[in-house]
Amino acid sequence: MKKAFIQLHIAILLAGFTAILGKLILLNEGYLVWYRLLISAVVLGAIIYFGKESIRIPRKNRWQFIGIGAIIALHWVSFYGSIKYSNVSVSVTCLSALGFFTAIFEPLIRKRKIDIVEVSLGLLAIAGIYLIFNFYPEYKTGIIFGIISAMLASIFPILNKPLLNSFSSKVVTFYEMGGGFLALCIILPFYLYFFPAEYFIPTISDWFWLFILAIGCTVFAFILSLESLRKLTPFTTNLSYNLEPVYSIIMAFIIFNEGKYLGSGFFYGFSLILLAVSLQMMRVYRANVKI
User: How many Å apart are CA 157 and CA 167, to the nearest integer?
Assistant: First the structure.
């Protein structure tokens, strides 16, 4: 359990840095994710090939991976869209709706009883987002993108957990990155019709940050996150990811000086979100649950 929590929180720290990279990479969010998935799939394919690990899986599972990959791709597009239409601090805070959506979707998908405590903690985080929404109406589009991103992000850990009993983390990540890339190839033209891009070939600076994003913050972080999911519940994993805003906001304050654009409303809302995270982590440790 301890090792799983360490793996999870390293993955969360890397995930927090992806928001910073989303600001540094000037590509449209659709193209940004397209390149991220492509590079990640190629790098993972090379790792698996040279590691002489088999990537053969049953056909029915291939469609599962492609479907989950599509969800991941859309989650990332909406996440980076949130950053482009608001800022790093607001967009990552919206991800705190993860706990609420997981508390609803996991029981529905796994066909178990809804946990009222989980729903209550999730609603506490939603209340924090609502406060931010009221104080910053100019970020309305970015906040909507952020909530869609959180909803999509709550689903794929639930779907991934049973697959990890049969396949390695590398193989799961490879197929999901590849599946997400293929899905985005189909979706991207429609998305760009509504949210057009100024350019589609990355600059030298874009390429540099894209490789850091794909290799460090995608391949390595995804594998760590999936390994931790073998021992932890999807709800605990997703609610723990609510710490991602902490890391991202600290980095955004230091790198982009975003603190000067945010007033008391943001910090009131963020305090409620931190309270929800803290209460769930205390709940998990006290219960000493082993999954």
Answer: 15
Q: Which candidate, 68, 70, 76, places its Cα nearest to that of 19?
A: 76
pLDDT classification of 291: cutoffs 50, 70, 90 = very low
d(CA 84, CA 80): 6
Summarised one tens digit per residue, pLDDT across range 96-107 is: 788 788 888 888
Q: Spell out the alpha helix ranges (H) of 136-216.
A: 140-163, 169-194, 204-211
- Which residues, other chains included, contact 186 with Cβ-Cβ below 8 Å and sequence gap of 6+? none
Q: What confidence tens digit (pLDDT) does each residue in 75-98 have?
A: 999 999 999 998 888 888 888 788
Instruction: Please report which confidence band the pLDDT of residue 127 belongs to, taking 50, 70 and 90 as the band edges.
Output: confident
Q: What is the reported pTM?
A: 0.82
Q: How far is CA 102 from the centre of its chain?
A: 13
DSSP-assigned states of every residue in 71-126: HHHHHHHHHHHHHHHS-HHHHHHHGGGHHHHHHHHHHHHHT----HHHHHHHHHHH
**Tokens in use for 246?**
């902490």
